[in-house]
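Quick illustration for those who missed Monday's session on complexes.
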Amino acid sequence: MKIIIINGPNLNLLGTREPEIYGKQTFQAYFETLQGQYPQLNLEYYQNNSEGALIDKLHQVGFSYDGIILNGGAYTHTSVAIGDALAAINTPTVEVHISNVYARESFRHHSYFSAHCAGIIVGMGLTGYELALNYFTKQG
Ligand code: DQA
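Prediction with DQA bound:
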């Protein structure tokens, strides 16, 4: 089973970025733990700060992979183009947000992605990525 975690802008700074909201762990360290927990999965990680690069990655994986776990960061709330890319691809996507976006500023309450996703996991910290992985493994 081939699954990719795609993180959008500023998520490369996890561990140092606003730790009171996003925690103190780097994503790289968390990803290595996940890989150890799910050795049977072909699990990849991709991060980019640019909208176009994220769209290119969705096109590249979106017709052959078994699952996409996407935290689009702030593009979630602004990007019609990434929403369109999610509508265009076949691979099911789970939208993840580390923080509870509904407990934050109102501009974070809207997502251009959710309507094109299998489901949404919000506010569970980094564990949200593992919950999304669980969804895919239980399906497959
Ligand atoms: C985020 C929430 C977004 O509103 C924010 O812009 C992020 C991270 C989260 O994981 O909680 O960059 O997607």
